[in-house]
Amino acid sequence: MHYDAVLDFWFEQIPESKWFKRDDALDKQIRQTFSATWEAARCGELFHWRENSKGRLAEIIVLDQFSRNLHRESALAYAQDGMALVLSQEILQQPDWTRLNSKEKAFSLMPWMHSESPVIHNQGIKHFEALGEPGFTDSAYRHKAVIDRFGRYPHRNQDLARQSSEDEQAFLREGKGRF
Q1: Where are the domains of the chain?
Q2: What is the pLDDT of residues 29-58, one digit of tens each?
């Protein structure tokens, strides 16, 4: 598969309204179309996509976004976050990154928001502010607030077999912090 297939699917075929909402039909569609691509990305086999920012962006989407669709409510949903973050950190050094549109740039930065590291969030906020996409910047601040409070995302605890504190349990009961 060529990386353009990923970008066309994510930015042209999928309405923005579905990007961040649970949608079992979308999950199934991603599973049917991109499972083999995800497996190749997970194994580092899509390295040839990294020759330009569009290809690197596609690999980030596969590892960061598709992982969540393919493996919802499973530790595998987050297992590729570190690799996606490294790709995201590196894409900022690519001279052609500036040619990506603002939505493409936002998704290239998404692994910063998904990290459970306060250090990464502090730097990620700067990137999102510079991007000038208020919706993404607001989301980055909401994610950072959860990390600042708990040092992790409590909604991942069950999937990652982590014990939740009483404060985290109360937070989850309030229906807050589920991204």
Answers
A1: 3-173
A2: 999 999 999 999 999 999 999 999 999 999
In this structure, which CATH number among 1.20.1600.10, 1.10.3720.10, 3.30.70.260, 1.25.40.10 belongs to the domain 3-173?
1.25.40.10
CA angle, residues 49, 53, 57, in degrees to nearest 5 = 75
Per-residue pLDDT reduced to its tens digit, 91-130: 999 999 999 999 999 999 999 999 999 999 999 999 999 9
For residues 114 and 103, give the distance between their C-alpha atoms in angstroms, rounded to a whole number. 17
Rg (CA), the chain: 16
Tell me the CA distances in angstroms from 1 to 4, 45, 117, one per residue in order.
8, 12, 33
In angstroms, rounded to a whole number, what is the distance separating the alpha carbons of residues 111 and 134? 17
* Cα distance between residue 59 and residue 173, in whole Å: 35
Backbone angles phi, psi at 168, to 5 degrees: -65, -40
Q: What is the DSSP letter of 14?
A: S
d(CA 122, CA 126) in angstroms, rounded, equals: 7
Q: Which helix (H) or strand (E) holds 159?
A: none
